[in-house]
Amino acid sequence: MTHGTDHLAIAICVAVIALTLWVTFAVARRSRSADGFFAAGRSIGSWQNGFAISGEFISAGSFLGTTGLIFYQGVDGTVILFASVISFLPVLFLLAEKMRNIGKYTIADVLVFRSGSRRVRVAVALSTLATCTFVLLAQMVAAGTLLESVAGIPFWVSVLVAGLLMAVYVFVGGMLATAWVQVIKSSILAILAIIIGVGVLSKFGFSFPLLLDSATHNAAAGDAILSPGQIFGSGGPVNLVSYALTFALGTAGMAHILIRFFTVPEAATARRSLGWTVALCSMFYLIVVVMGFGAAALLGANGSERVGTSGNLAAPALVTDLGGGAGTIGGSLALAMVSAVAFASIIAVVAGVVISAAGTFARDVWPTVTRAPAGEVDDQSQAVVARYGAVVFSLIAIALTMVIGDDTNITYFMGMAFMVAASAHLPALVLSLNWRGFTATGAMYGILVGLSSTIITLMLTPALWPGSGPAPLTIQLPVVITLPLSLIACVVGSLLSRPDRTGAADADEKFAEMIVRSETGLGAEVASAH
């Protein structure tokens, strides 16, 4: 890159960040209350929430990482995209409206509605923080790699800037600021993606078959780019199914996405917001497919040197060529725009993840650590703890990212996060909302077994196996093992902890209250007046 390109990329990054910071400080006054900080005053409309959820979902993993996967691995790299679109169906039919009516600020609020168990809160907190950590590592690695390659800023400086910015968004503006930052990011990214998609297709006469034909001739993998097995061949069909299920079911357990449903005024708005989300994500993911195969076709086999071994720079390299090539005004401008929007996308996602982690710490961990009696730590105090917790969590994320470095495909980190969410959260949430006999012990067993089995099985996969020989598991994301284990633990734990006759009556009464509230919204949290 030329020195001019460095300045242009930095200037556009600063402009986009300045816009989001202005929004953050503009809404700061409305985020002073606990309801404003944790749930944006429950004032977010359907399209805004749909765009915000899309902003959480369309991360650097899909924009940068998946484009790189398709560049190297072809059709296998598209599995995550199609599974991700399907993933909103379980959220729509099983969780969205019920969670909005039952919960308050975190998914633990839903799981403890019937029992009030602190043990469940702590268990959910552990799994939520693990999920958030994996997502943050993916986004922070992407931020560091992007600014280092495009603007010449050292990796550690890029990571530090990203970490400090996400701390500011959450500390100052809370959920309302992160929601509007996501809306801005999603809008800009959607427009930019359409321009890139049109630019790629125009090179092939707007013929997608011609694009694929060119990709088979120029891709590093050759004809194999259109054949399955590049990623999942070693594990067979089970590997493919498990990988797809991880992303298809993981969304329904991702805390930073599910808490978005607490920000809307009523359950119907939560349902409608998913329509906007599916529409925006479907459009974007189709364009990512075009970008991935377009990069393979236009960059060619020698493009591997430009996109790196991880493939995370395939999108920036592609838009540079679309703009006229490195060193040209058009190429420099295109690269600067994509880099700035990608960086803003990363910051928006990590801000949403951090507020989820901070809320979990303040509401689910802090009262237990301080041994405060139930109900003694009020919502306002928890909001204060969450603000400072966001800063601490940001600093931890910065340190971990610097230790890991930048030589990995960030999509795999996202897969690990989705696997924890699918295994540790989804079974407990679904059973809690639908099974009368589900108990706090069952929830705790299911969450802890889901979390521990995920960590153990991931250590046995090829990506993380520390031994010198072949890894014991050929499945990359073994959710087909961990999800059933978590479900069994939920059921067994509940059956072994059946309450006595008096306790059973109380449990039945609480379950009936939950069903009425989840279906009708009676007693649900209401929007705050501003």
Largest sheet: none
Rg, Cα atoms, Å:
23 Å
Report the portion of residues in β strands: under 5%
Give the count of helical stretches.
21
CATH topology grouping: Sodium/glucose cotransporter
Give the number of domains: 1
Secondary-structure element pattern, one letter each: HHHHHHHHHHHHHHHHHHHHH
Instruction: Kindly report the oligomeric state of this protein.
Output: single chain
Task: Report mean pLDDT, rounded to a whole number.
Answer: 82
CATH class: Mainly Alpha
Computed structural class: mainly alpha
Question: Distance between termini?
Answer: 48 Å
What does this protein look like?
This protein has 530 residues and is mainly alpha-helical. It has one domain: Sodium/glucose cotransporter (Up-down Bundle), CATH 1.20.1730. Helix content is 74%, strand content 0%. The protein has 21 helices and no strands. The protein has helices spanning 3-26, 34-39, 46-57, 60-73, 79-86, 88-102, 107-111, 118-151, 155-202, 208-218, 236-250, 255-258, 267-299, 304-307, 314-322, 329-369, 379-404, 410-434, 440-459, 479-496, 501-520. The protein is globular and about 70 Å long. The chain starts with a helix and ends in a 10-residue tail after the last helix. The model is unreliable at 1-5 (pLDDT under 50). This is Cation acetate symporter. It is found in: Cell membrane. It comes from Gordonia desulfuricans. The chain crosses the membrane at residues 6-28, 49-72, 78-96, 122-147, 153-181, 188-206, 240-262, 274-299, 333-362, 383-404, 410-431, 443-465, 477-496. GO terms for molecular function: acetate transmembrane transporter activity; symporter activity.
